[in-house]
Amino acid sequence: MKAVWNDVVIAESDDTVVVEGNHYFPASAVKPGHLRDSATHTVCGWKGTASYHDVVVGDAVNRDAAWYYPTPKDAAKQIAGRIAFWKGVKVTA
């Protein structure tokens, strides 16, 4: 699987976990320099509290386009250490 934004591969891995239609990539599969910490957090009743990253390609910034669960609840433990994408980031095989 590949996560692509602005024609740049942000992450690539054969080891993604699909939850609710979203591919969660291992954090190690994300190319260096394309994620910037965000102050945004949201809460999911069964997964826990999500933290976000901005996706950065050159001077272009896609705010909060990547998310992860630093300490997912037990029901979502399979996505620990993984990052998912949205907001125009295309995830394809």
Helix/strand layout:
Elements: E1 2-5, E2 8-12, E3 17-19, E4 22-26, E5 35-44, E6 48-57, E7 60-68, E8 82-85, E9 90-92
Antiparallel strand pairs: 1-2, 1-9, 3-4, 4-8, 5-6, 6-7, 7-8
Features:
mainly beta; single chain; 9 strands; Metal Binding Protein, Guanine Nucleotide Exchange Factor, Chain A; 3-stranded antiparallel beta sheet; 6-stranded antiparallel beta sheet; 93 residues
How would you characterize this protein structure?
It is a single chain. The protein has 93 residues and is mainly beta. The chain has a single domain, classed as Beta Complex (Metal Binding Protein, Guanine Nucleotide Exchange Factor, Chain A). Helix content is 0%, strand content 57%. The chain has strands at 2-5, 8-12, 17-19, 22-26, 35-44, 48-57, 60-68, 82-85, 90-92. The strands form two sheets. The protein has a six-stranded antiparallel beta sheet, with no helix packed on it. The chain has a three-stranded antiparallel beta sheet with strand order 2-1-9, with no helix packed on it. The protein is globular.
- Given helix and strand content, the structural type is mainly beta
CATH topology: Metal Binding Protein, Guanine Nucleotide Exchange Factor, Chain A
CATH class: Mainly Beta
Measured by DSSP, the beta-strand proportion falls in over 45%
- Across the major sheet, the strand order is 3-4-8-7-6-5
CATH homologous superfamily placement: Domain of unknown function (DUF427)
Helix percent band: under 10%
CATH architecture: Beta Complex
Name the poorly predicted regions: none
The total domain count is 1
How confident is the prediction overall: mean pLDDT?
98
Total strands: 9
